[in-house]
Amino acid sequence: MASLKRFYLFFLVLSGSVLFTSGAQASFTATVLDGYNTLSNNIAQTWHSPEHYELYVPAITWHARFAYDKEKTDRYNERPWGAGFGQSRWDEKGNWHGLYLMAFKDSYNKWEPIGGYGWEKTWRPLTDDNFHLGLGYTVGVTARDNWHYIPVPLVLPLASIGYGPATFQMTYIPGTYNNGNVYFAWMRFQF
User: Fold this and answer.
1) Could you tell me the pTM of the whole model?
2) Where is the site described as Role in lipopolysaccharide recognition found in this chain (predicted)?
């Protein structure tokens, strides 16, 4: 009788684990699918219904000095000459959505293309609605000379400060010692 009770207890614990795992897995899958659907809908809506076109002008690339040997940073290019073009829209909550293509001179002074979708939650903390702050993300693809121009997917944070049609937008590329850890910023002009 005791072994039968142990069997039932083992069976209940195992069944509960399987049910919990299945429920958690289904919830996780549903969350991922909801996120994917929201992202793809926002991209499609920005593509088909742009409110503005934008000019992108790279401004600065800064390699975090705490994460690099000085001889490397002395050789790196931190003036990312280039340009880009995009289209954007503001949603009903006042948040920014943008699609962009940009090319600029990378750390090795070689051309680096980048393209993708960006989203920022936008705040207008002053009574003047022209001033805005933003935090969000970008998903896209880049390619670099030192990686033989193999397309590399990316997900990076975005932050911005703007007034009217001019916005200073930035990201940080995380990394390891002597790799990554780069602050990259550009101007974005809507027209």
Assistant:
1) 0.83
2) 72
